[in-house]
Automatic annotation (TrEMBL):
GO terms for molecular function: ABC-type vitamin B12 transporter activity; ATP binding; ATP hydrolysis activity. This is Cobalamin import ATP-binding protein BtuD. Residues 12-245 form the ABC transporter domain. It comes from Halosegnis longus. The complex is composed of two ATP-binding proteins (BtuD), two transmembrane proteins (BtuC) and a solute-binding protein (BtuF).
Length: 251
């Protein structure tokens, strides 16, 4: 799959996008493109529209104005579930079914086999995905019995099993213990090295500046979009967050 990707493929394309749940826009005049192979972090204060932006990217919400495209198609009409892995916030397992890790990862094959039986080759892909995220030893553990970080890994494995080339994660390190965050980011970096496009919302600014190559700083509008080093040196954060003091609290 990675070899099939054209280097210049545009994965996400938001053009002049404005959206509000009411008459008041939550995100406004957003121009944002992501090409295949990028590793991008979206940062911003609470309520700045990050989750909304993610849902617009994925076509879960439709813009009031402007256009949102995903893999070149109108985002809301995009339906190739095998290309896209979305890891929503999973701080709590309460809403998850008491199924095992392997059963969760198996779901990644459904876009390929329907609800039919998995072949040996499909199961090999499932087990390889478990191995890649370091969860083989937990394959038969119930998803409800995992730590936050382990659960996120299981959902990433599900995306790998579907052979997704875009991984979108909404605050994946919420509920992940501090010692595991570093390893989690190393996993994301290794997936990105394999050619998977990674887009994540992150509240942990230290993690962002250490690991993401590109940062988008959002507070209704985009305050900064560029290489992480330039972001660190800029005043975008202070402008987007209002005061430098808030920035300290958020990191
Ligand atoms: P962030 O992810 O940066 O915390 P969100 O995109 O979740 O921001 O929210 C942006 C704004 O939109 C907030 O003011 C929030 O209260 C509002 N909002 C989010 N989801 C909904 C919804 N489903 N209905 C109405 N308002 C919403």
């Amino acid at each position: 799959r990675v070899e099939e990707l054209r280097v210049s493929e545009r994965v996400i394309d938001l053009s002049n996008v404005t959206f509000g749940y009411t008459a008041t826009p939550v995100v406004e005049d957003i121009d944002l493109t992501v090409d295949a192979g990028e590793h991008l972090a979206v940062v911003g204060p609470n309520g700045s529209g990050k989750s909304t932006l993610m849902k617009l990217m994925l076509g879960l919400l439709e813009p009031d104005r402007g256009t949102a495209r995903l893999f070149g198609e109108p985002a809301h009409a995009f339906d190739d579930g095998s290309r896209l892995g979305y890891v929503a916030q999973h701080a709590s397992a309460s809403k998850e079914m008491p199924i095992t890790v392997r059963e969760v990862v198996k779901m990644g094959r459904f876009p390929h086999v329907g609800f039919g039986t998995l072949s040996t080759a499909d199961w090999d892909i499932v087990d390889e995905a478990l191995d890649t995220v370091g969860m083989s030893a937990f394959a038969n553990r119930r998803i409800t019995q995992l730590s936050g970080g382990q659960r996120q890994r299981a959902f990433i494995a599900r995306a790998l099993a579907s052979e997704a080339d875009l991984l979108v994660l909404d605050e994946p390190t919420v509920g992940v213990d501090a010692e595991s965050v570093e390893a989690f980011y190393e996993l994301l970096a290794s997936l990105n090295d394999r050619g998977i496009t990674v887009v994540l919302i992150e509240h942990d600014l230290g993690a962002v500046t250490d690991h993401a190559r590109r940062v988008v700083c959002l507070n209704r509008r985009i305050y900064f979009d560029g290489p992480t080093a330039e972001f660190t040196a800029s005043d975008a954060l202070a402008r987007a967050f209002g005061t430098a003091a808030v920035m300290g609290e958020s990191s």
